[in-house]
UniProtKB/TrEMBL annotation:
Family membership noted in the UniProt record: Belongs to the G-protein coupled receptor 1 family.
UniProt name for this protein: G-protein coupled receptors family 1 profile domain-containing protein
GO molecular function terms attached to this record: lysophosphatidic acid receptor activity
Residues in G-protein coupled receptors family 1 profile domain copies: 43-258
Keywords: Adaptive immunity, Disulfide bond, G-protein coupled receptor, Glycoprotein, Immunity, Membrane, Receptor, Transducer, Transmembrane, Transmembrane helix
Membrane topology of the entry: Multi-pass membrane protein
Highest classification ranks of the organism: Eukaryota, Metazoa, Chordata, Craniata, Vertebrata
Span of the signal peptide: none
GO cellular component: plasma membrane
Gene3D superfamilies: Rhodopsin 7-helix transmembrane proteins
Listed Pfam families: 7tm_1
Subcellular location per the Swiss-Prot or TrEMBL entry: Membrane
TM ranges: 28-52, 64-87, 109-132, 144-164, 194-221, 242-266
One of the GO biological process terms: adaptive immune response
């Protein structure tokens, strides 16, 4: 599951003495987004089939994963328009569709982070506090959490997308831009505030939650009393999921979100200098493509592996219940 905050433009508000060197982004975006569209469409359709038709056990985890699939599909459906734009470098589909496409980018990027974080927190509660969290980890509560996430993400992404206007260049055959060439005034008045908000709420908080939950789960799994013959297979899957989650955030989200801060500083002229601008503009498209391409494939791995794990999660719970029963039995016989 792609672009993001407005991409660097040709004739934006940067220093006229600085030479733009990011034209490579157009063939790069076209190739990467084409691949992401094909792979994302196939894998998410397969994921929907698994969750709705072949998955026997449906719990709070599958609720989060279904919402993750919906978030991915919403964005994947806009990718053909983006590929067309980056090939032709002109947006003929109207301002409204441009705004919707920008909004869906934010919805997918940060909605995916939130839903992946929900899966991580749910796993943390199930493994570290399997008995005390039983009443908390329900499908009803998961649906409430998902609804709250959609409200939060859409309340941020829709105003952002619809407050931005596509721009035209009269000197280049009335070329209309989308996803880029936003003015320095827009960046200073609105986009810089958006960056601050999404970096704190949409990135740093989910990152901290994922790291904390992963560390706590790993510590719990290392305890001998949590390992039994019936839970070994489940433990391997849990460790695999932790590894996938950490990879997503470290190799996909961190480079893009860190560069996004510097990109905002360049566009608002807080960070000046041709060399700095050149570095930021060069890294931005590469980090974005890594985030979208890697996120799509890794998130699919999460969906399928978590689906399998949800089928066998009862093994670990059964083992923990058995262990607890044995402990209580031994204590009562002393």
């Amino acid at each position: 599951m792609y672009t993001t905050l407005p991409l660097p433009g040709h004739n934006s508000t940067t220093n006229s003495t600085c030479t733009k060197n990011d034209e490579f982004k157009y063939p790069l975006y076209s190739a990467v987004f084409s691949i992401v569209f094909v792979v994302g469409l196939i894998t998410n359709v397969v994921a929907i089939y698994i969750f709705t038709c072949s998955l026997k056990l449906r719990n709070e985890t599958t609720t989060y994963m279904m919402n993750l699939v919906v978030s991915d599909l919403l964005f994947v459906c806009t990718l053909p328009l983006r590929v067309f734009y980056f090939i032709n470098q002109n947006w003929p589909f109207g301002s409204t569709l441009c705004k919707v496409s920008v909004s869906l980018f934010y919805t997918n990027m940060y909605g995916s982070m939130f839903f992946l974080t929900c899966i991580s927190v749910d796993r943390f509660l199930a493994i570290v506090y399997p008995f005390r969290s039983k009443t908390l980890r329900t499908k009803r509560n998961a649906k409430i959490v998902c609804a709250a996430i959609w409200v939060l993400v859409l309340s941020g992404s829709l105003p952002t997308g619809f407050m931005l206007d596509s721009t035209s260049n009269e000197n280049q055959n009335n070329t209309t831009y989308c996803f880029e060439n936003f003015s320095s005034k827009q960046w200073k008045a609105h986009l810089s505030k958006v960056v601050i908000f999404i970096e704190i709420v949409g990135f740093f908080i989910p990152l901290l939650l994922n790291v904390f939950c992963s560390i706590m789960v790993l510590q719990t799994l290392r305890r001998p009393q949590t390992i039994s013959r019936g839970g070994k297979l489940n433990k391997k899957k849990i460790l695999r999921m932790i590894f996938v989650h950490i990879c997503i955030f470290c190799f996909c989200f961190i480079p893009y979100n860190v560069n996004l801060v510097f990109y905002a500083l360049v566009r608002t002229k807080t960070l000046v200098g041709c060399f700095k601008e050149s570095v930021v503009r060069t890294i931005y498209p590469i980090a974005l493509c890594i985030a979208r391409k890697s996120q799509g494939s890794s998130a699919c791995d999460v969906k399928f592996s978590e689906a399998l794990q949800s089928e066998t999660s009862s093994n670990l719970h059964f083992s923990l219940r058995t262990l607890k029963a044995k402990v209580f039995h031994n204590e009562s016989s002393v």
